[in-house]
Amino acid sequence: MLQPATSERTERDGRPPVDRVEPGSPEHAIIQEEVHLLATVQRALADKQISEVIQSEYDRELISLRDQIADARLEDVAPLVAEMYRLQALGSRSGNGRSLPVDVNAPYFGHLKLTEGKKTRDVLVGNRGFVPGSAGGFAIVDWRNAPVSRIYYRYDEGDDFEENFGGRPTAGMVVVRRTLSIIDGELKRITWPEGSVARRKDGTWIRMSRGERPTLRGGQGIAVRPPPPSEFFPPPKRGKLGVVGDESLREDKHLQAITALIDRHQFDMITKPDAGIVILQGGAGSGKTTVALHRAAYLHFNNPQVFSPKKMAIVVKSAALTEYISRVLPSLGVEGIRCTTLGDWMEKTRKKVLPELKHGRIEDVPASVARIKKHPAVLHLLERAVADEAAALAADLMSKIAADTGKAAFKKQWDMHQRLALVPRMREAQKWIQSPVATRAGITAKEVSEALGVFRRAKAPAADVLSVWAQVLTDAALLKEAVEARSPGLISPADYKELVDYVSQQAEEIETDEDQEVDEEADEKVRAAGRRERDEAVAALGGRPEGPEESMSGEDEPEEDDSLSRGIGIDGRLVDDDSPRGKLDEHDDALLLRLVQLKQGGLAIPGSQKTVQYEHMIVDEAQDLSPTDISVLRGVLTKRESMTLAGDTAQKLIFDNGFDDWKGLLGDLGISGVELEPLRISYRSTREVTQFSRAVLGPLADPLEPVTPRSGAPVEHFNFGTTGEAIAFLAEGLRSLEMREKRASVAVVARFAAQATLYYEGLRNAEVPSLRRVYGKEFSFTPGIDVVDVTQIKGLEYDYVLLVEVNGSTYADQIEARHLLHIASTRAVHQLWVTSVGTPSPLLPDLDGVS
User: Fold this and answer.
1) What does the pLDDT average to over 739-750?
2) What is the mean pLDDT of residues 595-609?
3) Tens digits of per-residue pLDDT, 552-562?
4) Which end of the chain is more exposed for a tag (fewer CB within 10 A), N or C?
């Protein structure tokens, strides 16, 4: 269970009692100073607001509150200001009143007391600036753009500073530097170099630490096996993160080989027979990817002629994973195995196998369209469509045979090859019907001739996958029947209509090379006929036919603007640039390739003797692929069907792919007898991180808890009033970490890209070193601090992970949010911090102690 960073257990739990702050202590003096300053700020804000409003009944209420605030005791100021803020907000919504200069519920998060010569001043760092005048004795500056805020981020208490503000050099000393948490107008926590105090729910203040602040330290860099219990380091004290020092960190942050550390169960998985499908399921950090890669190395070692690197492939969903695992196989003695993303593999393979399809690419696919295209019901409809085509062909052939003995013989032969794809099945039937066996069965020469005619006419339809694709995806009634049988109520009638309209546009203008040649030939005939008519008219008028470089007017005529005919608008962009007309999307590649497999039996490359085929394929993060995707990948394997699927349903990033669980997937693929191989030992994360991640999953967690042999620092949660306060807190911890551990890898993880960018900019302004904003596959896997959104780091690991903005609005109580928060937290090898702004996410385990 997550223990808050700002609380200690009581004696009832067998732990030391809380360390209360007593009157007269140095900590009590600091608390009183900050409470008094906050009340002063709130009074100034109230007076500023009231002095600027126009008199009305609404304003008289505010004036009354201002007078009460001026005379109130310190402990009564906060609730009065909160009431004033409520009235102001109501007035703003109704068109009355004006906005307060700053948020009185969280006016600032940093407190500097600066001396410049004989002058001392209080500078407060917040989200908006506010200067009350000479009588105020303080100023609130905006952390994002106020020059003086640099002092807060760059200097510590007791430091001398030298800065240049507006061309004027300024020098002085930082007498006080404190971080404050103000939530709902009340001071909740104060942190300074010598200690930290927090206000509990009952109003008492307790000491959080003596002589040190929460810091990031320690970490070994990779998920190594734990030492024997007798060699464990002493458990870390609360508020002190880290178990070892920089000496154990490594420079290379790529996935590492664990050959010397493989346990018995993993070894059994690696050494499975080379035929058949092996499914590796297990929680985050259980070694699924590493075991799968070791299995590929094992197969190559035992049979290098069959399992050569060129005959194996690794397919992953995330681009970052391709780089992350790229160095493992060479270290295992296997070089040259292609590692690619699913999207790249599908698109490039489709272009090789179906080069005649000329089209654009539509990237923005409606969610309802994507959901239906990836649903396993569509996969089964494609299979049924090809089966119906085969049945119709068989019926047509049977109609050409008169004798019952001939019909029976043909049906027997046709059924005997029912496991073959359509075209190979046709080929076998055609060979049979021309053989002496058919003659002996009573099939006449005339019937053979008529049957061959049927085969000739069926050849083109049998090779046509585009028509079947369009036919299946535009039959709303058929789609609804199939999807409802599997997933009742999942798709609305409007979604089916949207899909049909979308696919109809897609199919409308997709041209093959043959179509294009025919169109060009027809256009040239029309142009030639036009030239003949024009020349004849000129000759009839006594003129001379126009030469190739002459105009009828004898003058240079301006070229006709064909931009409209080419669909180009005045802005230079294609008209209907976002339209699906004549384009395919990423989900169509798998559907079309599967149809090729169902019809042709494989993925042959036209114009060559080559076929897309592999002896072994590894599919990592399989839970994010659709059954159609996996069916296509399975279809490119040789007869031994050697395949390794690795995944964890608790780490889903894609929730509309039709992959619900492994049992359902095997049923959709028609696979039986495959044993699921659970990996129960979690080697990456500590017991504390694993327990936190399982608590986040809640009812979605596997009932069987994984074994986590390594213990570490507690997961700590920090709640702030503003994002600026959170960034300042993290900046301080990260700067300290970078000074102590040059080889540490850190991930600052937000749910959304915009949040990640905001934190990156804030930390960069705070001069946090080794900072990187990572997009796509730009991970360097070197020591430093990566600022990312959660969808980017699937499958990766870091020494330290800092989850930011884990708020109720960002991570609501939803299935997708549970999965994402679980994924983000399990990237941590040694330490995990969780920060929230305002109301924490309801997915966080219950926090007790400090409010």
Assistant:
1) 88
2) 92
3) 334 343 444 44
4) N
Domains 264-355+606-679 and 687-837 equal at CATH topology level: yes
Are the CB atoms for 177 and 117 separated by under 8 Å? no
Q: Which residue has the higher pLDDT, 547 or 661?
A: 661
Q: What are phi and psi of 178, to 5 degrees?
A: -130, 150
Coil, strand, or helix at residue 170? strand
Q: What is the C-alpha separation between 57 and 54, in angstroms, rounded?
A: 10
- Is the four-CA dihedral 716, 719, 723, 724 of positive or negative sign? negative
Q: Classify 92 as helix, strand or coil.
A: helix
Burial 319-341 (b: 16+ CB within 10 A, else e): bbbbbbbeebbeebebeebebbb
Distance of alpha carbon 226 from alpha carbon 229, whole angstroms? 8
The domain spans of the chain are 26-199, 264-355+606-679, 367-508, 687-837
Pairing type for strands 614-619 and 611-612 reads unpaired
Phi and psi dihedrals of 343, rounded to 5? -60, -45
**Which pTM value belongs to this model?**
0.69
Q: How confident is the model at residue 196 (pLDDT cuts 50, 70, 90)?
A: confident
Is the pLDDT reported for residue 564 higher than 60? no
3-state secondary structure 785-822: EEEEEHHHCCCCCEEEEEECCCECCCCCCCHHHHHHHH
pLDDT for 363? 86
Distance CA 296, CA 303 (A): 11
As to burial, measured by CB atoms within 10 angstroms (0-12 exposed, 13-18 middle, 19+ buried), residue 168 is exposed
Lowest mean pLDDT among 117-131, 423-437, 607-621: 117-131
Q: Which of 483, 478, 506 is nearest to 656 (CA)?
A: 483
- Rounded to whole angstroms, the Cα distance separating 498 from 118 reads 73
pLDDT over 70 percentage in the chain? 73
* 197 close to 207: Cβ distance less than 8 angstroms: yes
* Residues 6 or more apart in contact with residue 790 via CB below 8 angstroms: 749, 750, 751, 820, 821, 823, 824
Three-state DSSP class for residue 777: coil
- Amino acid (1-letter code) at residue 359: H
Give the CATH number of domain 687-837; options: 3.30.1490.20, 3.40.50.300, 1.10.150.120, 3.30.70.2690.
Answer: 3.40.50.300
| CATH placement of domain 264-355+606-679 | 3.40.50.300
Does position 115 have pLDDT exceeding 50, yes or no?
Answer: yes
